[in-house]
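Example complex used in Figure S2.
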Amino acid sequence: MAALDLLLRLLATILHAALVFALAPLVLGLVATLRARLLGRRGPPPLQPYLTLVKLIRKTTLVPDNATEFYPVWPYLAFAPIAAAALLVPGFCAGLLTAGLSDIITIIGLLALSRAAIILAGLETGFGFGGAGAARDILFGIFAEAALLVTVLTFVLIAHSPTVDGIAAAFRDNHIGIQVSLGFALAATFMVALTETGRIPVDNPAGHLELAMVHEAMLLEYSGKNLALFEATAMLRLTVWMSLIATIFCPFGIGRAVDILSWPAGLALWLIKLAALSSGLAVFELSSAKMRIFRVPEFLGVAILLGLLSAVFLFLAQRIGS
Amino acid sequence: MTLTYPLAHALGAVMLLCAFAMLSQRRLAALISLYQIEAITLTAAAFWQGFAQHEINLYLTGLITLIIKAVLAPIALRRIVHHFNLIRAVETAMPVGLSMILGVALIGIAVLVVLPITVNAVTLTREDLAISLSIVLLGLLVMTTRRNALSQVIGFLSTENGLVLAAIGMPGMPFVAELSVALLVLVAFLVVGVFVFRIREHFDTLDLKGIEAIERRGR
Amino acid sequence: MSAATLAIAIPLLAAPVIALIGAPLTGARANLCVTVLVFLITLAVFASPGAGLIHADSLGVIFGILTGFIALTTAVQNIAFVRAEQSHGSARRWRVYHAMCQIMLGTTLMGLYADNIGLLWVAVEGATIAATLGVSLPRTATALEAAWKYFVLGGVGIALALFGTMLTYLAAQPALGPGLTAMSLSALAANAGHLDGALMTLAFVFLLFGYGTKAALVPLHGWLPDAYAEGPAPLTTTLSGPMLNVALIAILRFRHLMQANFAAGGAALQPGPFLLTLGLASLLLTGLSLARRRDARRFFGFSSIEHSGLAVFAFGIGGATAIFAGLLHMILHTLIKSALFQALIRGAALRGGGAPGNYGFSHLRGMLATNKYLGWALGACVFALVGLPPSGLFVTEFLIVSQTIQRAPLLSLPLGLGLLLCAVAIIRNIGPLVFDPPPAGTVAIPAGRGVGLVVLHLAAVLLLAFAMPPALVLALSGIAAGLQ
Amino acid sequence: MVACRVVESLTLALGLPGQGMHLGLDPLTFLFLLILAPQITAAAIAGEARSPTFWAFVLGMVTALLAADAFTLIFGFELMSAASWLLVLRGDRRPATLYVAIALFSGACLVPAVFLPPGGLAFILILLGAGAKAGLAPIHAWLPRAHPAPAAAISAIMSGGMVKVALYVIIRYAFIVLGGSAQPWWGMVLVLAGAASVLIGALRAMLEVELKTLLACSTVEHVGLIAIGLGIALRAKAAGDPALAELALQAALLCAVAHGLFKPLLFLGAGAVKHATGTTSLDWLGGLLRGMPRLGGLMLVGAAGMAALPLGPGFAPEFLLLHTVIAAAATGGIVARIGFAALLAILGLAAALALGAAIRLIGIGFLGRPRTLRAAAAEEADRPTLTAMTLLAVCAIPVALLPGLLLLLIQPVIAQLVPGAAPLRLGYAPLPLALLMAAAAAAAMLALRRFGARGERQVPAWNGGFGRPPVWLPFGDPKTQPGGTGFAEPVWRALGIPILRHAGADPGELYLFTPIARLHFRLTRLAERIRRATIRQRLAFVFAALVLFLLALGLGQNG
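Predicted assembly (1584 residues):
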């Protein structure tokens, strides 16, 4: 029986990998299209990101003359951690082959590694825009990481398991139910996700105004294949965050890798969750405007306080409960 | 023997009176004469103790005190005063009234300290010890309340007299002590003399202001 | 005629003879010969300590050898000092100087070997007068002022000590009766229990003030910094180091009388608090006064006050280990301080003779550039004073602090503060003194064999502190147990 | 590690008269000797082998570690301080006095502490003494001043090794000597001090412009991390929870091992940069990777450690520490739990600040365009420095990729410190993670080569449409480049001003060292007035003291 389980889990992992890499551009396209439609514009087709990637791959790569030999390394160093994170975060079913590795701290580390690679790419050529974007990203990263760790505390303590896989399984099986602390944790995680993926309140993904851009500023010197990799990384990061939020906060219906019958239901629910989150993101982006750079630390300060509040309520509940 | 103690006390009391009077003197000449009276009383006390303890060296001490302290010292001091024509008043660092009160307090402390001593030494009673201790403390007080170098020296010599008075009262004290005290006086006198003339060359005045000015410059 | 009496008599008799020698250099050589002889005799004192007035007990023997050794190395350095200095000052002045050196040596040895408290007092008085004349030799206004200050404060101290000696004699009456035996230290120590406690306490206060002045404990320290800063350096600084030890040992002996009397149920008070107060006062005030000194000799004079204070503090704590640490501290400090002053004298000589202003830190800075060996030796000496490990004083300060913690925990706070203040103030000067760029126009000069002696001192310190020969350990702990 | 099972003890003839010095070897000592070994060999290779003071410094550290009795421990500790003081003095004289004042203060705290009966006061004194030397808050402001002063190899050993010896003393006393009477509040004190060090160290590391000062501040942060680990372990052990204690100790000891490797690497690199360009200020460097490629690569490894990025040497300790704090938040009273939650936020903040500092170090210093001619003309570092750095980098690889194996080696030490602790399995496996990432990168590379266009073209950088820089500014106008200060300016405005006040002074300096210096100045002025007293006044002092003593005597006897 163990061999069969192993085979099934391998199959599930491969399926998960294929799906994640395939769906990533679609999710980004879906968000962009929904935004345009809600504004009454026709907007780009949902498959536009695929076309952008193909266009960039076909272009010849231009390399600045004062680039060091690490110039081509940064795109891969940015893409690899996000790809690994994508494989770690369970999608349609828990218990993948990579379940043992999917420790929440490791995932935070991988996200940080990818962000570091992009920042160094920005500083690579030593021009003004890259430096400015890098400095802003560092600032946001400081508060984001603090908020993220505090919220992590909440659901690791509730689920009594450090791995995302374990948390998903725990939340699915012993029906935790609605808890106040989880509510605050969700809000905080949502704010951190917006900062990490560079969505509206923190950074305008569509905008090209040099003064305001953060993520795009660091990629100005990249083109062709390298830029394609960076774009793919951005798309994957959005999908990773969405499936992370989906897996932890609404895990009902996630299948089990060993039980093949539960896969279709898990797959369907996963797609629905992604679509719901994308539309939610589109609606949220329309309802708020981009903040000034130095308002973001306060925005994330609120996230840290929310995280602390969720921890406080968790301790109160545990104290009353136990 | 009945007369031994009371007479010794009387001489001691006279010396204490002179030491106390020194506190109030403003003029150098008066200070020197008071010192001379104190030295003469000390000589008498030495002779009397010699007679009472049948000790030959006490007579010798009395003789030395007479020659050096009672005669030579005052003459030399007066010549110095004349040489620098210092007849004018000696300014004291502390108001005279305050130093008198301090003097009384010192005598009180001397008595307080001596009370618990229970030894019934043959000739030296607790009162004698208290007297000599008081003279030593008063001598020091004179030194600390005078700005003039010469009056400080006289305060120092008054302390020496207190010491010799105590030494005389000690029964069977070997001779060594007295001799060395005398030696001290002699040498001290010599050294002081040397200084005074040196200071004279450098500061044209005996007053310590010259010396104190150097110190205030600080190094 | 025991070796001890011989050791005392030779320098005192040689003093007038040397005073007759005209040329300063021959005077210095004669002074060296006499000192060599005296050093050999101090080694022989171990065999025949003498009886009666002059009787050297083991404590006296050890410190006698130490004094002889210090005098020897100073005399050797003195020749180079005199050769560099003989142009200043009249021949008469040099004759008085060499005579005073011999009198200082003689009186110090008498202070160590005397068994009679009267003779001890005479020795201390003689040393004070010799030092006073020594300080006044340069005839400058500041030297005169220092000498006058030395005479007044020293004289008062001597008077108080005499009064204390007489009171001790009086307190010994009930036990030893009239006559010489009542003044013999060994007899007093033998039946300390039967002394009159109250009188002995009064005597102890006066003795503490008298010999405390000579040991330069705060508030009686006024004379030392100026005396160290004026006058010919070998006499006023190096030779007067052992004199501090004589006063400290006197205080230790009288403290023993009090402690034994108190232990035997006599009326005497505990001597500890008196000593601890003076010791702490010395540590804390010198710690603060060291911070702003600009003249090297005055600076290290204050450091001597600090170390006397630390030794008295150790005696105040009491107990065999603390006293052992105190004695070892005195030995090591004397060796280090004399090495340091000899190095300073050599340094000043290399930097243009011992004129009064020559010992300023700004004048002596950057010694490394003048002579590499002397620079490092000077740095090592100053470092040895601080008590960080490679220096021997670390062992003694470790023992003293550990005993303080166990016997009087609250006092470890001011002790630690005092040690910290002094150490930082001293170590701060190594940088400028050794490694700074030298004043303009200094050129590298070979220093000759003077540096070898300094290194010899430091080697002796390291040997005594970290690898003390067992025989000396037994002797010193025996003494410490005896004087507990 | 088996060799250190048996506890040898050796008595030397030196030491206290008649008692001699005792040396002993046990797992804890063996681990810290293991931490020191690579650094000392690296420093020796990098050119310090000839200086006797360096070997005295090493002797001091080794004696302190091997010491089996209090005298030898403090002898080694102070010998280490004395030798390093001389090296700091020869490097740069200004911080030497502050450095030796702290060294003497730590000695003054340790000597009484070892003789006090086991209890709270002894622990506090040990913490003050050893903590001051380790750069633990509140006595930490001297470390960023003193460590950059000596030569690079020496500051490498000071930051990498000496700080560890100080922490070793804390461990030795908190867990073993005073272990029996340990209280939970001891752990909290250590955690509080650690948290303050982490926050201030990380923030200053992000804001400093001088390279070596930046690294020294990062040392303060890592000391804080280790102290937090030790604190939680101490508290858990006192509260009877060996599992949490073991996890915390694993975090602390692994952090010590990792920091002992990458920090000396970075310091040696900083020394090479100073040798090549004559300066360590980030505003004057830039584009060094072109002139010094191998040094750049090695510095990248060190920076990965400092930034605690996955697959780097620094991630495993950070990983364990975060899990320790999360587990600790599940124990204790409500206030302690909220405290640990806040601590987690601080650790997150500090991790990101450290990441920022590392990126700034590499990005501003090595990447980009040179800001000065010296930076442009920098040649590769000399062979000994590179060999030393490569040695450290090679030693860092097992810590980065095989932390599980290293924890097995540390297990005997933990068993010695917390008896009865079952070995825990590490949840972070870098090798499979690395495989995963390599597979993804290979797949991407294959896809791009298969479908992508061939060839690349060298073009002048776009730089947002700026024209070619003028002839007299061959490397472009420095004003348009991100500089060291400019890069940190956003963090300065957001965090620097509230915590470090406008003067940018370290709180440890502002609220501790400056007031003490002012008090010392006022006291010395008072002492000066006493010293300048006239003869008569000095006589008055003597006379007053005599009268006081007589009064005390009189009252004592009659009272």
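The CA atoms of residues 65 and 262 of chain A lie 54 Å apart. Chains A and C do not touch (no CB pair under 8 Å).
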